[in-house]
């Protein structure tokens, strides 16, 4: 059993879904692991990860619209407001989504479906530099 770790930097331009599939696929392809597990982990509490359809951009738009409605900004119930009106909603959105993904490696590649892509889901308004940790175990 072998293990590999890499950190992937992702610069965001503010709220939205940023596809990070390609750099992950490229890295895994160079590892020469036929069967194993890929873990994708984000080191932040106001951004998250998701696997979503990467064919129709309306899916991403609808997800963003839904989360904006589900967890609105400037809700008077929030006590944590010192980092801005988008910070507490960002933490809630992260809690409702995922900070890590586990994806099987089959025949040397992540076993993603035909229309699946890996996305960083930025929940803050302003640009951020995010760090995603990739970990592979396998043979």
Describe the structure.
- The protein has three helices and eight strands; from the N terminus they run E-E-H-E-E-H-H-E-E-E-E.
- The protein is 24% helix and 39% strand.
- The protein has helices at 21-29, 57-70, 87-96; strands spanning 2-11, 16-19, 36-42, 47-53, 100-106, 109-110, 116-122, 129-138.
- The protein is an alpha+beta fold and 139 residues long.
- The termini are close together.
- The protein is elongated.
- The chain has a five-stranded antiparallel β-sheet, with helices on one face.
Keywords:
single chain; three-stranded antiparallel β-sheet; 3 helices; alpha+beta; 24% helix; 139 residues; five-stranded antiparallel β-sheet
The main sheet comes to: 5 strands, antiparallel
| Helix coverage percent | 10-25%
Q: What percent of residues are in strands?
A: 35-45%
Individual helix count: 3
Which residues sit in consecutive blocks of at least 5 with pLDDT less than 50? none
Q: Compute the gyration radius: what is it?
A: 16 Å
| Largest sheet strand order | 1-8-3-5-6
**Oligomerization category of the chains in this entry:** single chain
């Amino acid at each position: 059993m072998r293990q590999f770790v890499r950190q992937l930097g992702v610069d965001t331009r503010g709220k939205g879904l940023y596809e990070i599939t390609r750099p992950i696929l490229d890295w895994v392809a160079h590892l020469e692991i036929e069967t194993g597990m890929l873990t994708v982990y984000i080191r932040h509490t106001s951004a998250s990860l998701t696997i979503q359809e990467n064919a129709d951009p309306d899916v991403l738009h609808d997800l963003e619209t839904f989360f904006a409605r589900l967890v609105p900004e400037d809700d008077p119930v929030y006590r944590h407001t010192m980092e801005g009106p988008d910070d507490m909603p960002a933490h809630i959105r992260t809690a409702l989504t995922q900070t890590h993904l586990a994806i099987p490696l089959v025949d040397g590649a992540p076993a993603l479906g035909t229309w699946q892509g890996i996305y960083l889901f930025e929940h803050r308004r302003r640009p951020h530099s995010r760090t995603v940790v990739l970990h592979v175990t396998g043979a």
